[in-house]
Amino acid sequence: MAQALCDGCGLPASPEHIALRIRRIELATRFRPIHINALFLAEAPPERLEDYFYYPARNRAERGRLSRALFSELMTGLQIAAAEVEGDEPFLAEFQRRGFFLSDCLECPVADIVPGLREGAAKANSHELAHRYGAIILKRIELSYKPKHIVLLSTRTRHLIPLLQRAGWGGRLLLYHGLPLHFPHPDNPGAQAQFRAGLSEIVTRAAWPTRTT
Fold first, then answer.
1. 4-206 — its CATH code?
2. Residue-wise pLDDT tens digits, 196-205
């Protein structure tokens, strides 16, 4: 029997693939602000649900190292603290209250879209993926998100820059030295430092509030 097509990537997918996509949508919707001040765009969701940004982990150790690094560095860089309640949910709630929303350009893991390519692979053809899914990304931004600002996370999203500029979003695109923020890889102190510096510069330029709970 033929597999059903996934509404996210448009490819034949297993019931597990479709169920995980729906679960990610449910989690993100729970923490989506009514009006988006800043849309943080990453490349694609991780393969494990526990590594998804909006997964409300009770203990951050549940997250893998890449997920934990991005979550911690982003919350710290945005000066988001939370009441002394166990888990990541209070941080996500404050992220939402400030009008921040994180989404992925692709709605499904890269490894599911390009067989044999794992998340974080150095030779990921992000240019090809931007070309294939660019129109869908723009449609979501224009019709659904409608953000005041857009921040690209990881240099692998750099191919979206001309796409966004041609579509008239260049004035809302917050870049660091003309490029997306470096992903704060836990094994790369240099990338972590660049991420912090870039995010700090963007926060200052955008004059976002730094209210904490």
1. 3.40.470
2. 999 999 999 9
